[in-house]
Write a structure and sequence with these properties.
The structure is a single chain. The chain is 36% helix and 19% strand. Strands 3-2-4-5-1-6-7-8-9 form a nine-stranded mixed beta sheet, with helices on both faces. By secondary structure, the chain is α/β, with parallel strands linked by helices. The chain contains eleven helices and nine strands. The chain starts with a helix and ends in a 21-residue tail after the last helix.
C-alpha cells in the first residue's frame, strides 16, 4: 500500500526512476521488501543491494555526505552520510525530546540537500506519539522540515514500523526516512537493523532510527548517536537548541562527544558560544538559591520589602 502511494506521488511530481539500474529495478519491482526467502528461480530482493548494483544505480552526488556545520564533528565523521542508516537514542528518559530534535535536525539537513520538492517519511509507533507528542508544524519548520512534504505513517507495533520503513527506503522516493519504534521489542534486533542498512546502503534514501522509548540494542548503523539536552546559549533570552551529542559508534572514523547547537536561521549545527552560556547560568543560579533559602519554614519572620519572599510560619 505504501509503495503504491509513493508511486502515485512520484508520478504527480513528474519524477521517474530513469537513473536506476534496470537489473536492480526489475528485481525489486513488485516484490515486498519483507520477503527474505528467495522464490523458486528468482533471487531475493536483498541480493540487489548485496551485489552493489543499487549503489551503482545511485552513485554520485546523492550518496555524498552532508556537512553538519560543526567543524569538529565534520572532521570526525566527514559529514552526515547519505544512503546509509544512522542510529539516534536519548541518553536517558528526560532526553527523549532532545533525541527527537537531533534526529529532526539531521533529517532537515538531508531534505535541504535534496532540493525543493523532495519528500521525507516519518514512520512511528502509535505509542511514540502518545508519549512524545505529535508533530507540530512550526517546530518542524525550525529544523528545516517542510510539513507539506511530510508523509507520516503511524503503525500499531514495531513489526509494522519496520515493514513500512523498509518499503519507504526501498522506494528511493524520500530524502530522509525517520524510523521511530517505541519500547524494547524483540523485532528490533540486529537482523532488523541489517535489513534497513542493506536497503539504505548506497541508495537515494537515508534512514534515521530514532529509539526514543527503548534501551539501545545492537545495531549495524554507520553511526550511533547518544543525545542529551544541554543549556541554550541564548543568555537570559530563548536561544537555539543545544545538544550534548556523543558519537558512540562510527564505522567510518573516530568517536567522540561534542556540544552541538542547532542554528535555526542557518539550518545547520555549530559549536555553542560558551561565554553566553556561562553568563546565563550564573545570572540564574544565585538569585534562585537565595529565594529558596529565604522561603524555608524554620526561619524567623522578617519584614517584607520590595520583591521579598514572605516566609512560611510554623504554627
Amino acid at each position: 500500500m505504501l509503495r503504491r502511494q509513493i508511486t502515485r506521488l512520484e508520478r504527480a511530481r513528474g519524477r521517474g526512476e530513469g537513473r536506476a539500474d534496470p537489473a536492480a529495478a526489475e528485481e525489486l519491482a513488485g516484490v515486498p521488501v519483507r520477503d527474505i526467502a528467495p522464490a523458486a528461480g528468482r533471487a531475493a530482493p536483498m541480493s540487489a543491494f548485496r551485489a552493489g548494483r543499487a549503489a551503482k544505480a545511485w552513485a554520485g552526488a546523492e550518496t555524498a555526505a552532508i556537512p553538519f556545520g560543526h567543524p569538529e564533528v565534520d572532521a570526525a565523521t566527514a559529514g552526515l552520510r547519505r544512503g546509509a542508516l544512522h542510529d539516534v537514542s536519548p541518553a536517558g528518559a528526560p532526553d527523549m525530546a532532545a533525541a527527537t530534535g537531533f534526529a529532526l535536525a539531521c533529517a532537515g539537513r538531508l531534505l535541504s540537500a535534496a532540493g525543493r520538492g523532495s519528500l521525507w517519511l516519518w514512520v512511528r509507533a502509535e505509542m511514540a506519539g502518545r508519549e512524545a507528542g505529535e508533530p507540530y508544524g512550526p517546530g518542524l519548520a525550525a529544523f528545516g522540515l517542510d510539513p507539506s512534504r511530510l508523509v507520516a505513517v503511524t503503525a500499531a507495533n514495531t513489526a509494522d514500523v519496520l515493514r513500512a520503513a523498509e518499503e519507504g527506503l526501498a522506494a528511493r522516493a524520500f530524502a530522509a526516512v525517520l524510523i521511530e519504534p517505541f519500547g524494547d521489542d524483540r523485532h528490533l534486533d540486529l537482523t532488523a537493523c541489517r535489513r534497513l542498512s542493506l536497503i539504505a546502503d548506497g541508495g537515494r534514501s537515508t534512514g534515521i532510527l530514532l529509539r526514543t522509548g527503548g534501551v539501545p540494542g545492537p545495531t549495524s548503523a554507520v553511526t550511533r548517536w547518544c543525545v542529551a539536552a544541554a543549556p541554550s546559549s541564548g543568555g537570559p533570552h530563548p536561544g537555539n537548541p543545544v545538544f550534548a551529542a556523543e558519537l558512540a559508534r562510527n564505522r567510518l572514523g573516530p568517536v567522540g562527544a561534542w556540544m552541538m547547537e542547532w542554528r535555526i536561521d542557518e539550518q545547520s549545527f555549530r559549536a555553542p558560544r560558551l561565554r553566553h552560556r556561562a553568563e546565563a547560568s550564573g545570572s540564574l543560579a544565585i538569585p534562585l538559591s537565595g529565594r529558596l533559602a529565604a522561603a524555608s519554614g524554620d526561619r524567623s519572620s522578617r519584614p517584607a520589602g520590595p520583591a521579598a519572599v514572605v516566609p512560611f510560619r510554623v504554627r
